[in-house]
Structure prediction request, 1476 residues.
Amino acid sequence: MVGGGSDSLIGVVHRIAANMGDNFNLIGGAFSIDFKLAESFAAKLELDHTRVYKTIDDLIKSEHLLPENERMQVITVATPNFLHYSMSKQLLEAGFHVICEKPVTTTSEEAIELQQIAERRQAVFAVTHTYTGYPMVRQMKSMISEGMIGKIQKVDAQYYQGWINPVIHDPEERKKVWRLDPSKAGSSCCMGDIGVHAFNMVEYTTGLTIDSVLCDLNMLYDDNLLDVDGSSFLRLSNGSKGIIRASQIATAEENNLRIAVYGDKGGLKWEQENPNYLYHVIEGQPMQVYKPGNPYTSDFEKKSVKLPSGHPEGIFDAMGNIYNGVAAAIREEDYFDGAYPKIIDGVRGMRFIEAALKSNAKGQVWEEI
Amino acid sequence: MVGGGSDSLIGVVHRIAANMGDNFNLIGGAFSIDFKLAESFAAKLELDHTRVYKTIDDLIKSEHLLPENERMQVITVATPNFLHYSMSKQLLEAGFHVICEKPVTTTSEEAIELQQIAERRQAVFAVTHTYTGYPMVRQMKSMISEGMIGKIQKVDAQYYQGWINPVIHDPEERKKVWRLDPSKAGSSCCMGDIGVHAFNMVEYTTGLTIDSVLCDLNMLYDDNLLDVDGSSFLRLSNGSKGIIRASQIATAEENNLRIAVYGDKGGLKWEQENPNYLYHVIEGQPMQVYKPGNPYTSDFEKKSVKLPSGHPEGIFDAMGNIYNGVAAAIREEDYFDGAYPKIIDGVRGMRFIEAALKSNAKGQVWEEI
Amino acid sequence: MVGGGSDSLIGVVHRIAANMGDNFNLIGGAFSIDFKLAESFAAKLELDHTRVYKTIDDLIKSEHLLPENERMQVITVATPNFLHYSMSKQLLEAGFHVICEKPVTTTSEEAIELQQIAERRQAVFAVTHTYTGYPMVRQMKSMISEGMIGKIQKVDAQYYQGWINPVIHDPEERKKVWRLDPSKAGSSCCMGDIGVHAFNMVEYTTGLTIDSVLCDLNMLYDDNLLDVDGSSFLRLSNGSKGIIRASQIATAEENNLRIAVYGDKGGLKWEQENPNYLYHVIEGQPMQVYKPGNPYTSDFEKKSVKLPSGHPEGIFDAMGNIYNGVAAAIREEDYFDGAYPKIIDGVRGMRFIEAALKSNAKGQVWEEI
Amino acid sequence: MVGGGSDSLIGVVHRIAANMGDNFNLIGGAFSIDFKLAESFAAKLELDHTRVYKTIDDLIKSEHLLPENERMQVITVATPNFLHYSMSKQLLEAGFHVICEKPVTTTSEEAIELQQIAERRQAVFAVTHTYTGYPMVRQMKSMISEGMIGKIQKVDAQYYQGWINPVIHDPEERKKVWRLDPSKAGSSCCMGDIGVHAFNMVEYTTGLTIDSVLCDLNMLYDDNLLDVDGSSFLRLSNGSKGIIRASQIATAEENNLRIAVYGDKGGLKWEQENPNYLYHVIEGQPMQVYKPGNPYTSDFEKKSVKLPSGHPEGIFDAMGNIYNGVAAAIREEDYFDGAYPKIIDGVRGMRFIEAALKSNAKGQVWEEI
Prediction:
């Protein structure tokens, strides 16, 4: 792992998730630019201190000295956003498989470059669209691909949060938030951070691509440079239309990500904060409610739960499923399509963000992705 | 009542609602173009047969012969849509108060004309945006006007149905649906029928006006002339942004109207199919769930329920509250703002529909309302 | 109607419900022991003042003078509880059909007497177990009788309220509550008022009878003579077991009546405060959620809704369905079993209350019903 | 760990949970009576093969040869039920801290003996009432102990499952189920397996003890020796009454554990299958809904989540919190009351089961715990 040390929240998620499927153990890493912090962190975890590195260069050099079967197999990049691209690139080039936190890059060009390197090096390169790891999201994907809702004719995805509300209204306060500082956060706040998850959920569950968007962004205040809210009309590859809505000023919302997909036979609806329920509305019939671990679910879903039905799955379990997907890919097993989010998903996400910004900047016009 | 006889569903709603508050009794009307049907309908209801009329002209003439205190006070227009305007006009000019089904006209010009006549004749003229009669919608309006969620910064309203799905996919079938025939349904199907309810809910609950829209409509098939789905970006009068989403191809949805309004202190969320719950999310505090008939609700809400808390209210009760509002207005009582939807709401609705169509026809551009 | 005048809440319910199906109009009655109140109430409703009576004796005498086809057909008894028995008896003997508020009597002997009179006079005698009028309760009854959940093996009904909490803790306050005064409320508070509804729901939906109970009542304070909470174990006629739970000290609960019935194929669950959802859990399959007015419901359910699906039904609609059942019975139509609660249900309810009290008094032992 | 190898579901839960708080690593154990299986399991996990033992005796002997700071600290007992008591005893006597799966023993005498040994050896001895690890259960405990619902006056806990339904109706099938075989499962099926969880939840959240029970058990078939369903009336230590309901024939229910506690100020309600919502009903005020990781929760709750609000917690997270509690206890930190379930909870559970069986056997009479 690079980054993700001591007080890193996302580091915790990765450590736990990596361990969940008995596929990976944390061996070492370059956990912090403060090496003392990294060392004490590693000591707390009882890691072998010889595999705690000062820098990513040290890590690569030293690990390469080890016999191949003792080397770290996968390296998780959990550093601040601006380092994702360069570090992933370096690690891929050095022959490691990589799991990189989102956003994987700051431009689509960089993402495409990483995609090409990964292909060339035949490396597994996962991007953490974590929500794709939930069993019921996978069940949704299975059911749509099996035609259970028919031809898709309407898509609606939402990601509402309220976390920026407490800081956005005071000009001094909002200047202190790194997410609202273009030099640190890149070109987008709301679309880049959460809108892209909604985008990914649409493409992931439907198997369709979003071809163009018309986007209305909201900065709320004139002196605020980044979007804190925005919606996009969508054109999908099968000719259907849809909508994505994202907000960080939906006051008091937590992680209210939800998606509804309607076909000509029925629809499927899912909500992240209540992830163990999948609602299947059916033309002329009662709604059906799917839950994890039941006999009636898809093989992909069944492989994504660890216990019988009735045991709630959480966000750590979702990330764990992604690590399992990565493990299967490394082992070159014949596993499930969608078992982990790939760099192509990272590329598509970057293109969406860029198109959304362009659409809005031009005065809300259609922009191809 | 004009129209609303025998097998009319909406007639049932009006009869029951009119009666609910002990303000009105159905005395008579011109219930049907088939007078025999009208007579047997009236006989079934044990109405005085002398007040069952062949035409609206007969009705007006005969009622005018009666002493003023014996005349019908209010006349409900529940005829097919294309007659709403002309009949309402005639009745208003003849000195009656009028309750007209939605859509009140087919153009905003007509609606404005009715508004002017009603003002001139000092008549009460109600338009049945029935959902404004739900106790929890009124509670929402009260709480927003009292500042409980602070300054509004985000609005999102949805009205999803799936009823057109079974008929839209077959070219022969869809030609038989009057709602999809411009000569019968007017210029819009989805926006005109349900999008306008979502529009009304936004203006009703927030007290803001929607100044302009950018709308993306969906006809689904090239040979289908009217919209069956569509979304609008919004600009509201206080500078905030929002969105309205409506669909009749959200397969297997029934009447999934919902609204979420977020201010800088919190938000309020309500759903029509579960109308007795109002969700108040609050910055930094647990969500609160309001229910009808409790000590903690507003005076307006309290006046809109008939029983103590725990007795579910339905759609008939909502319409009953609107009739109560009309009764109070006729009695010139000092009642609550928003006690019944006025012709101005009908005017605003028509303008929204026209702007939405224009915005879409021009290629999804901003259009003022 | 006798009783139910002016400020009577239950009178409102009956007036509206009676009117809902276009079967009944309120013609007159003996609305109050204060005749002036009764007269002004009748004037407000624009009733014929010649049919506003001082007493029930006057009512019977005067109505009998009218030709049969002009007489009141059905008389609703909405007086205070202690008058239900004597008035119902008098009205039945006088040849009227009767709809009586619950509890219909204070002893099972009286209830049996009324049952016998009604049979002898061939009168329709309805008891207002209003919850049986909800469309989804009727759907539940239909599905169970059609065998959709198989052989019943477990029943659980709950009725939790909290309304006594604010008055129960102060010895002075609780003495003022008529419901806690045995001289006014009879022998039971919680079981008699709401436990009996849970009992009725079990017998209504399952078609089984409850043969014996073992009951644990709670008076909360030694000086309080009546139960404010209690549960019963059940033995049902098909050999299965079950439980009824009722409380008036479930603080802040409103009308939380719910029932779950499990058979060997699946189960059905319903909640009064959310009455338009019926949950069908099925062995090995996803849960199905039934809603009113859909093509997939039973004929009985379909006859119990007035509008297409998606229009929420409330408590008034439930009572309206009971009035429709009474109307069909008076017209001697071949209608649905369970279309209105009969005096036999009143008899069974009284027997349940008596058995529950006896079981508890003897120290929680089994008592036959 | 003893037991919990290869295909053991509960072993997975313990491994993941142990790891979650960075407190524990799985070092070794006696994973299986089939040593080859144990070895291949350990190899898969890349454990040091010198610490994979054939028997618990080997484990104790070999670990004792290691310096104290290298020895296993805690040993998790995840063997079949009948071994829990003897192995826990052996491990406690050998100076290890122990985490034992439920049921910890087959009689209360054995449980008391373990309690005494643990006290004597000053060992931490945890019993896996896993549900006490959910953040919202801990929030509930905090709120009740802080008096937020006032004096408790009513308790209702339910644990409904349907898993026995598919096997109970065929005499041959049900004989094959080990849980229904007294020689393997002990004296109770439903009460012993899940009723005891409901019992524990009541005592855990309220801080009260249940002093006596009157229990009605159901074997469903005469030739079935163990209970598959049952309810208990309760007498609690503060004089209040309550009820516990458990079933394994609530067809198609998964793990429907729920608890409601009502005090004189309000009530709290929680459901295991939707564990991230805690419902606080309040006398005269809107219901409040608590969710994990928010600023308004208790310190105990805050310490029981790993991420900010909006990230759903699951059953693994609950178990992880219990491991954290054990770690704190071993470190002799001043942590939270209720941070892990203790052997005293195991003792109380065994007493409950015994009292329930006795109460039922005597014909549903009160039995002290």
Chain A has a mean pLDDT of 95. DSSP finds 13 helices and 13 strands in chain A. The longest strand of chain A covers residues 152-160. Chain A touches chain C at residues 280, 284-291, 294-296 (CB under 8 Å).
